[in-house]
Hints:
Layout: E1 10-15, H1 23-34, E2 38-44, E3 52-55, E4 58-63, H2 73-98, E5 102-106, H3 117-121, E6 125-130, H4 134-141, H5 145-164, E7 167-170, H6 173-181, E8 189-191, E9 221-226, H7 235-245, E10 252-257, H8 262-275, E11 281-284, H9 292-298, E12 302-305, H10 319-326, E13 331-334, H11 337-342, E14 349-351, H12 356-368, H13 370-384, H14 389-403
Parallel strand pairs: 1-2, 1-5, 2-4, 5-6, 6-7, 7-8, 9-10, 9-12, 10-11, 12-13, 13-14
Antiparallel strand pairs: 3-4
InterPro entries: Glyco_trans_1 (IPR001296), Glyco_trans_4-like_N (IPR028098)
Keywords: Glycosyltransferase, Transferase
Pfam families: Glyco_trans_4_4, Glycos_transf_1
Amino acid sequence: MEPIRMSPCRLCVITFDWYPSEPRVHRLSETAVTAGHQVDVICLLQPGEPSFETRNGVNIYRLPASRHYAGSVPELLLSWLRFLLLATIKATSLHHKHRYELVHVHNIPDFLVFSALFPRFSGAKVILDVQDVTPELMTIKATGYRRALLRRLAIWQERLSTAFADHVVTVGWPFEELLLQRGVPSKKITIILNSAYPPLFPAAQRPPLPGSDVAEEEQTFILMYHGTVVERYGLDTALRAVALALPSIPRLHFKIRGAANPQYSVFLQKLVSELGISEHITFIEPTPYLDTIVDFIVHGDVGIIPYRNDTFADLVLPTKAYEFAWMQRPMIASNTRAMRSMFRAESVAFCDPSKPESFAEAIIDLYRHPEKRASMIMHASQDYEPYRWERMAERYEQLLMQLSGRQQMTAVEQPSLASRDVMT
């Protein structure tokens, strides 16, 4: 698909994350550059990275703030507030120089959108990108009496933030439904899925479909997971499933690639030892280079998404699911509402997220039936086809044109919520 051509627009992107390792910010920013826009990204600074660089046409301004996967809620809030202050100062300074027309702010936190205060009052249009719904996330992070209080505060700041923004972008239908319920007008919301980004996931690198023969005894059968390693994503369930499946698949190997919550990582390492499966598990540290993910995926046999069925994970459409579907790898996944909204039962081996034996049965079944893996791949590809990145990029480019005044503001074409009933 040829990108939409337009006169250049000056766009500032703000994220409490690293760039280019944050996939959504990376692909949207490069999409805007490809369409001819001038893009500046304000993000976190990692050790060893330059505070400024230009990569693939994107100007990257990194700020000395930290993001931790562990810590208390007050510590998390303080880190958000520190970055809000730094990002506000930087965005204001850059706006004086470049006079941005658009500022695209990615949550979490939602209130990071107020870092665009000066550009907003100077005429720039502001997009709030809701990658995660903060009230539901805070609900699972807090316990006891604090849970209800944090949820109320999270809803309050979300409402202020979405009201301040000129437009809200979100990552899927479950999140859209919540935003609608909390008062965001439907005409103010655009869905842009975290579809697989073809420059990072070339179709030419797809492995061949599984053959018709049962896997050979001496052949290693690789189960894979990539992404954040935290408790709500259920890696302990997957490890227990591997232990249960090993008697049937002696050469089963599970590779886990991703940044981990330190406490949960220690727990997983201890669990691996207790289960006696150390020789069958590999933990791989992530790198800031996203192009290494495709090599990880194409050398695996089956992807696993063992998310817990809590109020947050039930709403998440995992980016890795799109990447598995695009790169033609079969999937085993928790039977969540979000996953069922995207894929049919013929496309994914759905499992009970609370039962390791359910995942173990799926692993064994797919190992023994390569023809089933091939069939699932084809069905998942069909399910994913309407939501390929080329279509999401076109949707984003259209939104930028409209908000910047280069095109009359109309509803951006997208599937309606009603069309995304849970698949059966």
